[in-house]
């Protein structure tokens, strides 16, 4: 029973840390705010970086430096671009295979 109680307490604390980080980001960058899917990136960072301030700083840097921020914008311009790039790479790399399958890419 103690293991279960510790696990539940840890999960609640983890969810609160995640909520605080995502809320802080939404205040930090109101143009993007919060977007579904950010929790996967933020949660992984929090699992690796125990200090919330450092985790927040790393999250902001990842979104800005690697242009992940554009994927979370309301118009999803970054996501659309990445999906187009992926489709072109698949088309160029596997053209013969796609032609054989008669897939419209």
Q: Strands, helices and their partners?
A:
Blueprint: H1 2-28, H2 38-48, H3 52-65, H4 77-93, H5 95-101
Helix pairs in contact: 1-2, 1-3, 2-3
Protein model, in words:
Helices cover 72% and strands 0% of the residues. It is mainly alpha-helical and 105 residues long. Helix 2 (38-48) crosses helix 3 (52-65). The longest helix is centred in the N-terminal third of the chain and has 27 residues, at 2-28. The protein is elongated. It starts with a helix and ends with a helix. The model has no long low-confidence stretch (mean pLDDT 87).
Index terms:
mainly alpha, 5 helices
Give a count of the beta strands, DSSP E runs of length 2 or more: 0
Q: Average pLDDT value? A: 87
Helix content: over 70%
Structural class: mainly alpha
Poorly predicted runs: none
Order of helices and strands: HHHHH
> What composes the largest sheet?
none
C-alpha end-to-end distance:
54 Å
Count of separate DSSP helical elements: 5
The amount of beta strand, in percent, is under 5%
Produce a short descriptive summary.
This protein is mainly α and 105 residues long. Helices cover 72% and strands 0% of the residues. Helix 1 crosses helix 2 (38-48), helix 1 crosses helix 3 (52-65) and helix 2 (38-48) packs across helix 3.
